[in-house]
Specification:
Elements: H1 2-8, E1 14-15, E2 18-26, H2 39-53, E3 57-66, H3 71-82, H4 87-94, E4 106-110, H5 117-124, E5 135-137, E6 140-151, H6 156-187, H7 193-200, E7 205-206, H8 222-228, H9 231-234, E8 243-246, E9 249-259, E10 262-263, H10 266-291
Helix pairs in contact: 1-10, 2-6
């Protein structure tokens, strides 16, 4: 039964053509960041950034917003301000900005780019506690008060890790660009990828055998499978072009071994055939008993 089944179903027991490839993979993770950035570089970058950051101030604004005030209304509010009445109380009474009126007109802090240009210009010209003349924006007429100023304090200890990571990222990007250019140049018509890997200080890799259905790791990528079974790589024994896998991953492959398609021997597939025959017999028996 086993032999007859095998002879009748040989086409089902073919092993596909397979290849083994040597490859070099270039990824950001291969960049050795240990000791890549010195303390002097971190300090220099901190000082460079601190110079610009320290000059920036955050201004806390409050306002009274009037959509279409009359001259009499503006004069009334101004008279109360001149008399020393509390700005927050006046904002609660007069302001039409429902989001801020109950909080004394407080709008929080701005570094110069939160509010309309005319608003920001008027706010920047004030001293703490001072109220502006009426300022027009698309929202209406504003009476603006500068509530407070805060200067950004830059602390090296808290910024050190961020700056170091920033510098490492810059070096990694530069390293990737240089390595990729060298990989393209050295792998072109290369006889041995291991030698290329040695020159580039990258690890030489070898895949498991895989078919046109793909394998594991980089050999699961359609672009890698297509290149591995291309005439240039499979038949002419050239290295592939550098293949972009996305996410800054690149790979170049070269044929190591081609394994032709073959008919599997009966001894290899006997367990599978026994299972298939057993299933057929069981189904036939079940059908017979079900009929009875």
């Amino acid at each position: 039964q086993i032999t007859d089944y095998y002879d009748a179903n040989k086409a089902s027991y073919q092993e596909d053509e397979k290849v083994v490839v040597d490859y070099i993979e270039l990824t950001p993770g291969l960049f050795d960041s240990e000791g890549a950035v010195s303390e002097e570089q971190v300090i220099a970058r901190f000082e460079e950034q601190a110079a610009s950051m320290e000059s920036a101030e955050s201004l806390q604004a409050a306002h009274i917003l009037l959509s279409d005030p009359s001259a009499e209304l503006l004069a009334e509010i101004q008279a109360k301000l001149d008399a020393g009445e509390d700005f927050a109380a006046l904002a609660k009474e007069y302001s039409e900005d429902v989001g801020s009126a109950d909080f004394g007109g407080d709008l929080g802090f701005t570094t110069g780019d939160t509010f309309p240009e005319s608003f920001e210009a008027a706010l920047a010209a004030l001293e703490i506690g001072q109220v502006s003349a009426p300022v027009e924006t698309d929202s209406g007429t504003h009476l603006i008060k500068l509530v407070d100023k805060q200067k950004t304090e830059i602390d090296f200890a808290s910024e050190r890790e961020r700056i170091e990571q920033e510098l490492v990222a810059e070096l990694r990007d530069q390293w990737l660009v240089e390595k990729l250019a060298n990989l393209k140049e050295l792998s072109y018509n290369a006889e041995d990828l291991a030698e290329v890997a040695g020159e580039l200080e990258l690890p030489p890799m070898r895949s498991e055998a895989f078919s046109r259905q793909g394998g594991l790791g980089v050999t699961a990528y359609p672009a890698v499978i297509k290149a591995a079974f291309s005439p240039e790589v499979l038949n002419e024994n050239y290295a592939s072009e550098v293949i972009d896998l996305g996410d800054d991953r690149h790979v170049v492959i070269k044929l190591n071994k081609s394994i032709p398609a073959r008919q599997k021997e009966l001894t290899e597939v006997k367990p599978a055939i026994v299972s298939a025959i057993t299933a057929d017999l069981a189904n036939a028996q079940l059908a017979e008993q079900g009929g009875a």
